[in-house]
Amino acid sequence: MAYVRKDVGALTRAERRRFVNALLEVKRRGEYEEFVRTHIEHFSPDGESGLRTAHMAPSFLPWHRRFLLDLEGALRRVDSSVTVPYWDWTRDRTAGSAPWTADLLGGDGRRPDQRVTTGPFAHREGNWTIKVGVTDEAYLTRDLGRSHDPIELPTRSELEWALKDPVYDAAPWDSTVGRGFRNKLEGWGTGRGSVSWRNHNRVHRWVGGTMLGAASVNDPVFWLHHAFIDLQWYRWQRRHRGARYLPAAPPGAGDGQHDRIVARHQRLPPWDVTPDELEDVGRIYRYA
Fold first, then answer.
1. Measuring CA to CA, how many Å separate 39 from each of 59, 80, 132, 254?
2. What local confidence, expressed as pLDDT, does residue 250 receive?
């Protein structure tokens, strides 16, 4: 029977507590660091050579869908009632709204070091020391809204701009493509400054601190953000019935993306699963 992922703003006090406790237990067991390592390992920009799976590629959505399922599995081994909630950043748009409450993810970082000092993931609580990262900081940092150069979270209309595109992705299958749902949702744009960060990418920038870069998994909001991104893929599929993951076949030997992206029926590292197998997960979970 499929379980349900809920809007974080709709969680009861007990559901918040159980989610937090399960996350802390996964961390205590030493399992959480493996998720951080996996994301760092597969965070490959399209300016580098080799296969890209997690970002700047068609597999951005199925890769993170499987990643979420792995984390959710770890949480549910601790407490079978727990699922990953999603953060609707088109509605909960301030540092005082969900999920930034003291009983859930805690709030903004302090000045001037951006250290998070509230909530269960604050370093001073002793339960959330960062052990795997790209910097030497052992504590969680945030800069909600980017205080030095303020930006806004994406709007509902900006999200709609991505959802209405009927094509999943298009050549050259990277961060430069101007059409297709995947890159419009992932958010690699043209130009400079905040206009070049859209949807998914803008949210990472808005949270700031630990959420910037390959080790962003160290901030638990990563999972709530990507659950909402996963929900958008689900909504896009329902709107554009029959539309499928692209490319259906691998780019040929003469193509610049040959052996650099994952086609529909190819294995998606680091798992033995294909994008095709991840297009329909209705038997596993649904969204409230």
1. 14, 25, 11, 30
2. 97
